[in-house]
Amino acid sequence: MPITLKDIAKMVGVAESTVSRAINGKPGVGKETKQKILEIAKKYDFQPNKLAQGLAKQETHILALLIPGLSKGNYSSLVENIEYIAEKDGYQIILCNTQNDLKKEKKYLNLLQEKRVDGAVILGGEIADQHIVNTVLRGHKNIVLVNRLCEEILIPTILIDASYGAYLATEYLINLGFENIGLITAAKNDEYIESEKIKGYKKALKDNMIEYNNELIIKTDGSREAGYLAFTQLVNIDINPDSFFVTSDLLTLGLIESIKMGGFFIPQDYPVVTYGDTLINSIIEPELTRVVEPLEKAGKLAAEVLINLINDDQAKEEIKVLKPTLKIGKSTKY
Amino acid sequence: MPITLKDIAKMVGVAESTVSRAINGKPGVGKETKQKILEIAKKYDFQPNKLAQGLAKQETHILALLIPGLSKGNYSSLVENIEYIAEKDGYQIILCNTQNDLKKEKKYLNLLQEKRVDGAVILGGEIADQHIVNTVLRGHKNIVLVNRLCEEILIPTILIDASYGAYLATEYLINLGFENIGLITAAKNDEYIESEKIKGYKKALKDNMIEYNNELIIKTDGSREAGYLAFTQLVNIDINPDSFFVTSDLLTLGLIESIKMGGFFIPQDYPVVTYGDTLINSIIEPELTRVVEPLEKAGKLAAEVLINLINDDQAKEEIKVLKPTLKIGKSTKY
DNA sequence: TTGTACGCGTTATCAA
DNA sequence: TTGATAACGCGTACAA
Q: Is residue A85 located within the same domain as residue A115?
C-alpha cells in the first residue's frame, strides 16, 4: 500500500493542502517546510494516485487509439509514432482493437464518456460513422481521425492522399513511355482508400491525354493469389498491358511471381510500381519502385493535433492532407 | 458534461446510494424505484465515471503492456491476443513501448505505483530486471513476464521454449539424413533467446551422436545481408554444410538469395529450416519448413494469468512453458 | 427497501 | 505562509 498525501502531512505535521502544493511546486510554501516535505516524499517514494488526481482535475492523461487491426495492414509504424509523441507529452495510450466491428468501436468510444480517456485517435476503419458523430455531438470534441473520412460533421483529420500517390505512380510510368498501364487494386477490401487510388490513376491518364481503358483495371481482394491470377487475366485481354501499378504488397508479390513464372522479366518486359513501403514490398526482387506514405509524420501529427485539441479550447478543427512520395527502385527502368 | 449518479438521484427523488445499487444490479431496491432509475439512466445515457469508480473500488481495470517495440519483431500477434482476452474480461490495455530503454521501462512500471493500472505484462526485452524486482518487492505482485527470464525472484512467466523449437528443426534435418547442419543465428541481437536456440541445436546433435562442429555455427546480426554473407562463409570452410537451420526470417531471406545466386536449388542442394511463422517466412519460395511458435496461445495465456493474479490473491506463481511445433514445407524434402 | 454518512486521494478555494 | 473545507463521482457499512 503506497504512501499518500495524508500520510506525509501527518509525518511532517502540516496540512494535506500544504503537501500538495509543495509536491506540485506551487507557490505558497515556506522553504523549510517544503524541503521537509520533499524529503519525506522521496524517502517513502511517494507517487500521486493518478486516479484521484484525475478525478479532482477532470483529466486522465490517457488517450484511446482505435485501430481496425494490428497484424494486418501497416499501422504499426503509425501506432509507434503516436505512442512516442504521446509519451513525450505525458500521455498514455489505450490500445483499442476494433477489428472493424461496430459494437467494439462503439464500446471503445464509450471510454470518452466514462471519463477514462481525454481524447481518441481513430485509425482507418470502414464502418459507418454515425456513432462517431453521436459521440462528438454529446460534447466529446477531442477526436482525431486518421485516414478516415467523416462527411456528416467537421472533425480534425489527418489524411494521406492515396489518390495523389496513385497519380505519382501512374505518371511515372507514363513518363517512361508506357500507355497501357494495368491497374491491380484491392478494391474489395478497402473501398474508400482503393477508390481514391483508382481516381489518381485515372487523373494521371487524363492529364496526359491517354485514353482510359476499363479492361486494364482489376478490382480484387488483396491476396497473393489474386495478384497471381491478375497477370493471367490481363495478358489475355485485347489491349495488352505494357506495365503495372499494383496497390497492395501481397498483390504485388503474386503478380511478380506470375510474371516470372511466365518467363518474363522485370522491368524489361513489365515495369511494376507498387504502393506502400511495407516489409514485403521492401524485400521483393528486383527492388520495387513504390509509393511511400509519410506514416511517421501522420502518427506524430495525429498525436500532436489531439493533444493540442485537449489543451486548447480554441484549437480549430481542420483537415490536414499529407502527400506520399515516389521511391524509385529497379522495377521500372534498366 | 455527462450525467452523474447525483443527477439521477435528484430527478427520481431518491438517494445516490439507491441509484448506485439499482445501476449495479445489487439487491435492496424496490422494483418500481429500480425501474424508474434505469429508465432515467437510459434516457440520459448514464455512464459511470470510471475514475471515481476506480478510486472507490481501488481498481482501474486497466493493464500495462510493456513491449520493446512494435514494428520490429513479431509481437503484434501476441499484443492482439492479449488485448482480445483483456477486453473480453473488461480490461483495457495501455500500450507501453519501452524501446529497450531502461528509463522508459522504469517509468512505465511506475504506472503500477501510480495506481493507474491493475497489473502489467512485460514482453521480451533484454534489459537488466533489477527494477522489476524492486517493483515486485514494493508489493506490486500483479506482473506477468512473457519470453523473459527473471532469475532473482519468482514471477509468473510464459515462456516459449526456443531451445525445443531449435531441437525440432535440427532433429528433423538429422532424420532426413543430414549431418553437417549449418546454424545461422542472430545471436548479436537477442542474446538470451538465440543462445537457447543454439542449445537446442547442440542437444539434437548430441542425442543423435553427431559430432558438434563449431565452424558450422555463425553468430551474426539478424539482417538480410548477414544471411547472404553467411552462405558464402559456410561453403568456404573445411566441412561443407549439407543443410541449414536459420533462426530469423530476414537471415533466411538473405541465405536463400545467396543459395539461389550460387546456382543451387532448395531443397535439392541445400534443405533449409527457418524459425518463426513470420510474414517473410511465409512468402519465401519454396515454402519454408519452419518452427511455429504458439503466439496466440502465449498472448491469451499471459492475459489470463495476469487477470487471475489480480482477482485471486491465492493464485500461485508459476512458469509455464509452451512448445513450438514444426510446420513442414517444401524447403526440406522433394 | 431506503437514506445517511463516510471513505477513496487529490486539487482548489477561501479564510486565517 | 498555512490550514480547514469542499469538491470530484462513486461504493458501501450502517442505521432507519
A: yes
Q: How many domains does chain A have?
A: 3
**Chain B residue closest to A1 (CA)?**
B139
Rounded to the nearest 10 degrees, the angle between the axes of helix B31-43 and helix B5-12 is: 120
Q: Based on the fold, state whether residues A29 and A105 are members of the same structural domain.
A: no
Tens digits of residue pLDDT in B46-90 = 999 999 999 999 999 999 999 988 876 678 889 999 999 999 999
Name the grid cell of B189: 541481437
- Does residue A166 contact residue A204 with C-beta atoms inside 8 Å? yes
Q: Is the separation of the CB atoms in A166 and A172 below 8 Å?
A: no
Domain coverage including residue B246 = 162-293+327-332
* Mean pLDDT, each 10-residue run in order, chain A (334 residues): 90 92 88 91 93 94 93 80 95 93 92 93 80 88 91 92 97 97 88 91 97 94 94 89 95 95 95 93 91 96 95 83 97 91
Q: Is the bond into A267 cis (omega within 30 degrees of 0)?
A: yes
Domain of residue B12, CATH code: 1.10.260.40
Structural Rg of chain B based on CA atoms: 26
Contacts of B75 in chain A (CB under 8 A): none
Option in A83, A113, A114 nearest B95 (CB): A83
Judge contact between B166 and B204, C-beta under 8 A: yes
pTM: 0.91
Three-state SS at B247: coil
Residue B294: how many other CB atoms lie within 10 Å: 17
pLDDT digit string, tens, across residues B154-191: 999 999 999 999 999 999 999 999 999 999 999 877 77
Q: How far is residue A163's CA from residue A35's CA, in Å, rounded to a whole number?
A: 61
Cβ contact A49 with chain D strand, < 7 A: no
Q: Chain A 16-35, CB below 8 Å of chain B: which residues?
A: none
